Amino acid sequence: MAYEQLNETTVIEYIRGLPEVKSVFSDLSDLHVREIGDGNLNYVYIITSNKDPNETVVLKQAVPFLRIVGESWPLPKERMTFEIMALETEERYCPGLVPKVYHASHEMSLVVMQNLKDHAVLRGEMNQGKVFPKLAEDISTFMARTLFYTSDRFLDHRTKKEEVKKYINIDLCKITEDFVFSHPFYRSDTNVYNEKLSQADIDLVQKDGELKIRQAEMKYIFMTRAEALLHGDLHTGSIMANADETYIIDPEFAFFGPIGFDVGLYIGNSFLAYLAHAHRQVLLGNEPVEYRTWILGMIRDTWNLFAQKFERLWAEHHSANPEPFWDQPTAEQDHAEYRKRSLARIFEDTLGVAGSAMIRRTLGLAKVSDIADIEDLDSRARIDRMALEMGKELIINRNRYDGIDPVISLATSISPADQAIG
Amino acid sequence: MAYEQLNETTVIEYIRGLPEVKSVFSDLSDLHVREIGDGNLNYVYIITSNKDPNETVVLKQAVPFLRIVGESWPLPKERMTFEIMALETEERYCPGLVPKVYHASHEMSLVVMQNLKDHAVLRGEMNQGKVFPKLAEDISTFMARTLFYTSDRFLDHRTKKEEVKKYINIDLCKITEDFVFSHPFYRSDTNVYNEKLSQADIDLVQKDGELKIRQAEMKYIFMTRAEALLHGDLHTGSIMANADETYIIDPEFAFFGPIGFDVGLYIGNSFLAYLAHAHRQVLLGNEPVEYRTWILGMIRDTWNLFAQKFERLWAEHHSANPEPFWDQPTAEQDHAEYRKRSLARIFEDTLGVAGSAMIRRTLGLAKVSDIADIEDLDSRARIDRMALEMGKELIINRNRYDGIDPVISLATSISPADQAIG
After folding, report:
1. Do the Cβ atoms of B186 and A224 come within 8 Å?
2. Which of B158, B212, B324 has its CB closest to that of A328?
3. pLDDT score, position B140
């Protein structure tokens, strides 16, 4: 059917017309709908049976403009095509870590999927100081499997290139190029930040020549390296979780880019949570050290588990499908060394992206509630400055860290785990 | 019209039906045709007026198989689409350095173009010891302009990504991945080499663990870095020249890849010519030093002029289109430093590709006549070993050369310019 923007009335009619949801709803005649419009880009409807609240789905529809701004900022609704394709690929390699899709329509730019009603957005939960014991395990699995199985390490040459072509995602990449890699690093009109930051604080980022060079390199890497299918927006706001389960949502930014991008965005956002809790734990009436130590451990585990899992998938695939190229007597140890060096390069990109994420969330347009919702602006400014300092160091010296432990040490040297702010 | 493989009879009918060639031929009723079938892939016809030999064109048609093998090796004739598109792009940025196209048909997988009858293939000419005073100037211009104007350094984000998508060239890239980056580096059935090379000579390449790792990295770079529209097969056999003019032909391997690939392939082939002339100049009755010194100077000039021209195009574009990102007080010198480091990375790729080209032309399937046509197999083996030694060093230590001069020194340390072989 031709594209039509749904509303709370027509969305029910649309759902009733779908054979795929008959497995969810025992009675399609008695549904109610609620729009949960907290998104910047799309419309999201929760459709639930009046008889049984467990019979429920989510319908997400893209509109041909940026919702947060309005029709004056056009954004092709075809971005939903990337989300639908990526959800299918992620489901193939990580069933149970992405919402189950019941129905998708490229024409209508919509997807009908599992309502994660027993889960909440990770960022909000972490702001409340909740611990997620399975988080590092699940996120590292998601990253290792989606990134390995869509890379040249696994796919044959033809499939990989056909996939790259399918996922050329011009408009959404442009948002990242501008708002993550560029605007926060100069005096852009789009930037928004804590009024308690001084010009001198900002100039430490925006006037530093070496940082500019190293950041321009990161943007170029993002624009030119088609290594694997990225989620493209993998921060703590794109994850829904409870104590038992983790779901990764919203892959509309998906495209083939550098493997370190997904890993770096997640780790950068996690370090922002670490910094925020120097203050948030005080508000919650706790000594900060316990929760912040959990976050640092989660970051450490996330990288180490990701690297181990990615490396193991690669090693196993290599053993099961021997490449004649590696036929020298020392091939086994040489290939292990090749994998190790490749992971080291991914780590370098990871740190550069983590630093970019920390700076852009401090100076750029899109904020993280972890820090931006802190009401005491002086406390917030102390944390903002730490985020800028750490982000800058990671971008400039990303090639000088030989593992996650020195990066954790960097974080604790900037803000000791027991530091209480405010 | 639907695809039809032409022959010497139907090609004349086809030419007569083209309005575009009326500017070339004063009389379309009196033409003769000659197939010059030295290609491995395609059919090439020369069509000339019987009245005036200056009235002449070339028609090149792709067939849906690898011509050198036959119909048993299918290869999509759509490869001509890439050649047609690339010829148009190259003509836009380098008029006079590519043959003028009169007519192109994607459906018929053919192109009708300027007959370069006053020029000869550079490789054959250099084998004869001819000097080309304008070569470095012209090749460096071609590389700098085609590579700059198709990169993110010049194109806007949208055009670049649309172009990347158009130029996904799966089958031809596969040939390079296999025959340049893989097969020569292990005991592959496809390899062909001088019987005078010992297993020990070959094992110095094929059994070296560090070389395998560094070569696997080069292949991955080729497969993942979409930096600019490459010619994709830029060696001395893809160039036609005389003392005054240089034409770059046959861009059917065109795709978006690492900038250093084109530069490295050309420089690697030129170093092979340098090595070959330790023997060829003796056969020609000359002291080798003069011609070989010219080749080294041509290589030096090619890199230095390429780097200067690319850098200047970038600097000028940057000045004329200021990017707000570079707004710090030291922006001018910082951007210059950024350009310098970017060129250094291109140089690193260049050397890795040059080394791959030198080894693949020695051990792989496709040979270069410079060396492979040397009849004295012992002399040829001495040169083969030098090519392997230099290729290996360039691949392994490609990051340790800070300019072309130390690479020239490497060549003369392996074979002094005045060395006479055979």
Report:
1. no
2. B212
3. 98
